Amino acid sequence: MIAKRTLFLMFLGIVLCYLMISQITAIWAFTIDDMYITLRYAKNWVAGNGLLWNVAEPPVEGYSNFLFVCLAALAMKMGLNPVVTLKCLGALGLVMTSGALYALSRFWLSSWLSLIPAIWLLVYRDEILWATSGLETTIYQALLVSSVYVLLRAMGCVFFRAEPGADLIYKEIRVSDWFIVGGLFVLLGLTRPEGGVLAIVFFMMTYFVMPRVCRRYFYVALGIFALFYGTYFI
Questions:
Q1: pLDDT tens across 32-76, in order?
Q2: How many C-beta atoms lie closer than 10 Å to residue 116's C-beta?
Q3: Prediction pTM value
Q4: 176: which strand partners?
Q5: Is the Cα dihedral 45, 50, 56, 57 positive or negative?
Q6: Which of 3, 81, 143, 223 is 20 to 30 Å from the Cα of 32, by its Cα?
Q7: Which of 183, 190, 184, 28 is nearest to 94 (CA)?
Q8: CB-based burial of residue 7 (10 Å sphere; 0-12 exposed, 13-18 middle, 19+ buried)?
């Protein structure tokens, strides 16, 4: 006789497959026309005309997703279909956001309760539309949630070990994660304008709550962000 736990896992697997795969398949043909703004800038860039909306006219920054402009340009350079490429990235962003939400929830909740935020995300209709629209929304979500998760892990926070609502437990600092934090915040800022603002806010909050032993690594992450995002911003 199959154990109840196994049956429950099979049920969850079926639900997650339906919510993620079936919904994306059903809505795949839908594309938001805003994506073609990104593609127009990428096309002119690849053609050697620069980041322009209209060639031979003053530059106008009509995009707000520099990272996706770069990825679209890279797809064109490689001979890939840029529309399909950006839509695939959106679907990947949905998968990454769901996984990052589960991982982040595990700092406070048990493994079963941590599934609720991910499932809740997938039953939100507009989330599926964003995932297949060709826009950067789900990648931005994935970077945002992942950066917070890795930041907590870098400070030595450990997964759920007590009753829900208990304070985070600091155990072992993960030095390599501080480099990842800096990189994720750079990508966050390149994906959306407000991403850079959020990164600065998170850095400020982290400074006042992290263990003192983390200070040197904190400055490394901050330096990575300041160097790369600061260069882009300037």
A1: 888 999 999 999 999 998 888 988 888 777 788 999 999 999 999
A2: 13
A3: 0.86
A4: none
A5: positive
A6: 143
A7: 28
A8: exposed
